[in-house]
Amino acid sequence: MTRFPPTIRLGAELRRAAELIGSSEVGQLMVLDHDGRFVGVLSEGDVVRAVLPGADDVREAGSIAAAFAAFVARGHELAGREVDALVITDAITLRPEDDLTAAAVVMADRRIRRLPVVEDGRLCGTVSRTDLCRAVLAHA
Asked: Mapping DSSP to helix (H, G, I), strand (E, B) and coil, where does residue 7 land?
């Protein structure tokens, strides 16, 4: 388990989420409310989809470089927006005492890379597919 995963607070700007995802090199940020309670997950995919220009904008761009410029421009336009609307609030979570085999099955079936571990509303850490691989190697 990763004990101190990257987190972001409700109300944070999209710009901050992009910075954290880029610097921490994880695909999801754990989202906490202002009291430090776990509320959900913000994925890098959701951030990218939020700033994607519309299909018409990309077609009109005419080249990959121009389409990328449209993507960057949209990112600048939305950078100050709050992340709250993008948060997955019905995230699948684990409890510290949950069985890792069951977690592995859920992660494989749903193609989830990382699950939050939550106890009494507090984030304890996360379990990733990498953590599961490490556990297998440690007990091989």
From this structure: strand
Residue 36 CB neighbours (<10 A): 11
User: What are the respective helix, strand and coil percentages of the chain, to the nearest 5?
Assistant: 45, 25, 30
Report in angstroms the alpha-carbon separations of 129 from 2, 14, 39, 43, 132: 11, 26, 22, 16, 5
Q: Which two tokens stand for residue 30?
A: 């754990």
The owner of tokens 């940020």 is 29
What does the block give as tokens for 101? 């085999």
CA 103, distance to chain mean position in Å, is 18
For residues 134-140, give the mean pLDDT.
75
Q: What is the pTM of this model?
A: 0.85
Helix and strand numbers, DSSP H then E, in the chain: 6, 5
